[in-house]
Amino acid sequence: MSDYIDIYGRYHHKPVTESNPIPSNNGWIYTAYADKLGMTVDKEKLQRCFNECITIDNSKFQYLQRSPGRFLPPISRDEILGMAALGFLKPGHLNGWNFSPFRLPAFNLVTLVKQLWFIRDKHRNYFWQNGLKQVYHVAFSVPLSDRHFILSKWNRFNLFYFIVAKIDALLPAKNGIKWLKYDKNIEIMRKEFPSPHPFAES
After folding, report:
1. Rounded (10°) angle between helices 144-153 and 159-170
2. Buried b / exposed e across 51-72, counting CB within 10 Å, b at 16+?
3. How confident is the model at residue 173 (pLDDT cuts 50, 70, 90)?
4. Contact, 46 vs 10, CB < 8 A?
């Protein structure tokens, strides 16, 4: 068993230790990388983990969290992509194209603009740590550039999202996500996961 795999079967960028059993908040996207690299991925164990990440509150509101019993920080775009790439994410797990783990308020454009302006120089977590709820409509929205990839996992197609993805594929890569989506920029993966990480050898 790799030192980089947690008890749920997910890969991480740092070794798993007794004092740090879940060493990153991005286990799903890293596991999607491992799966694409042809590495051993325990889909049954991951399915159980995914099922435990589906949470329904007292008012029947359903949302996803990163890890079982770990609500914060809220789930991210990267983790949504990883769940989709591994085949676990389904349309019913999203609120439209929104993955907010908080209930969305009625949309108010004026309040949204005010809140976006207010957080322009704040830390990226400020909006949810301080309950700026209109921002949830934007911050937890699946990026247009990811939607074609996710739809392809559902055997669906949308011409607009396809065009957006084609344009996105031409832009410079900052991490392994474009490699995952478009099979490009493998050099970014080599930089992101140098030896002795097991991805480097793969």
Report:
1. 120
2. eebeeeeeeeeebbbbbbeeee
3. confident
4. yes
